[in-house]
Amino acid sequence: MRADSGVIRPAYRWILSLYGLIWLMNAAFWLAPWILTSHAAAAQNFIGLFARSTKHAPQLLKPLFAGLAAGVEFLGPLHVAIAMAIAAAAIGLALAFRFLLVSVAIFGFLYSWLLWVAIEGMGFPYTNGQTDPSVMPVYAISFMFVLAIGVQTKNTKRHISEPLWMAARIVFGLLWLFDAVLKWLPAFLFHFDSQITGQFSGQPSWIVAWLHVVLAIITFVGPVTFAVMIALIETVIAVSLLTGRALQYIMPLAILYALGVWCTAETFGGPYSVFGTGVRGDVVGNVLVYIIPLLMVFARVYSAQGQGATMAAENPAHT
After folding, report:
1. What pTM value is reported for the model?
2. Residue 155: pLDDT above 60?
3. I need a surface site. Which of 113, 191, 218, 310 has the fewest CB within 10 A?
């Protein structure tokens, strides 16, 4: 069975364009403070991103993050911000117009891990019910899928890289499993409602009103019961990705679940300001980016189902 059939190529194009749009939005977020506020305020905010990594890191890693922050000050916050915006814009355009995909995927993969260390502080602190290692690992995993697509589009006679595609799916499953395991811990199960109330600060009135509705639903169901349901959902998603089973059923549900988390616990990525969003890394929300690899996996499943139906129609004697 070919993995690079015409059934899936249009889906790939749309997903790559969506992923490129996210990177272009990131580029805009990096530049916005320097355009819309004073140089001093923008520089203070930019350096603060790196300082936060140092603040939340374990003692062993503090010298690393302090060194990164010092490097940014030495090079100049504006110069670093412009370089990051150019990198994000270049990645976004390459993805949107689908050129140099292999090179962009390799660069994007490495660059995502660099941002995970420098800006997101490796996801620390893992306390108070935090259950994910921040968003840049999802970007890196997405680039693994892009690389598999790029290998195929670079030479149309070749299949999608099956080992790389499977590796990306399994690593993505491990990330979901990491999230799920932390959600089974008491810090999340017995303090789940605080995940919602903790988002009230700095939000516009309509978001606060919406969160009160969400909190009322959680209270009606029961915070612990609701938390167990979430942990169970993430466990099922992780198992499906790791085993490759029931992907055609679980991936659409996972996409809906990601959207649900984005518009509740992540408050649509807010609060938004000229300094970016409420998420470290200045993206529109952690879970929203999860939709990119989820769509990749679902598109592959859709392709396989379409090919199976075509083969059955062409060979009725074997069905």
Report:
1. 0.86
2. no
3. 310
